[in-house]
Amino acid sequence: MEIVAIVLQALLGLAFLGAGFSKIAGVQMHVDNFKNWHLPQWFRVVTGLVEAAGAIALILGFWEPSWAAVAGLWLGFTMLVGVLVHVRVKDSFKQTFPAVILCVLPIVLFLILSGDLSDFPGF
Asked: Strand ranges (DSSP E) for the chain?
């Protein structure tokens, strides 16, 4: 399972780093999406910061696995909200599916690494 966790961490870290920073930078696709979802643009920036923070925690998790476990839970919840937004605005399955995948995979990572949570600061 360690190899699966490392691969998931790397892939999710890259995905959320890219997605987070592109939201923060105001890439037109994200600006348009948030308009279509009737969400304010400041929420796009906050979402980008949340995703980037999760990606950074995933990267820290290579040295301290408890950070990756927390990041998995953090990003899984974040993407659950994203899936609910897609459902609320009645997006197609094709539009919603990537958010579903990016909701499930961090939760899988969390479940793999949940035994390391006791090492997380404050737990």
From this structure: none
- Indicate whether this model's pTM tops 0.90: yes
DSSP classification of residue 47:
H
Query: Could you report the per-residue pLDDT of 7-50, keeping only the tens digit for each?
Result: 999 999 999 999 999 999 999 999 999 999 999 999 999 999 99
Place of tokens 């605005």: 89
Annotate 5-30 with b (16+ C-beta within 10 A) or e (fewer). beebbeebbebbbebbebbbeebeeb
Find out whether 95 and 86 touch, Cβ atoms under 8 Å: yes
What is the Cα–Cα distance from 85 to 100, expressed in whole angstroms? 11
Q: What is the 3-state secondary structure (H, E, C) of 5-34?
A: HHHHHHHHHHHHHHHHHHHHHCCHHHHHHH
- Residue 90 region, left (φ>0) first, then alpha (ψ -120 to 50), else beta? left
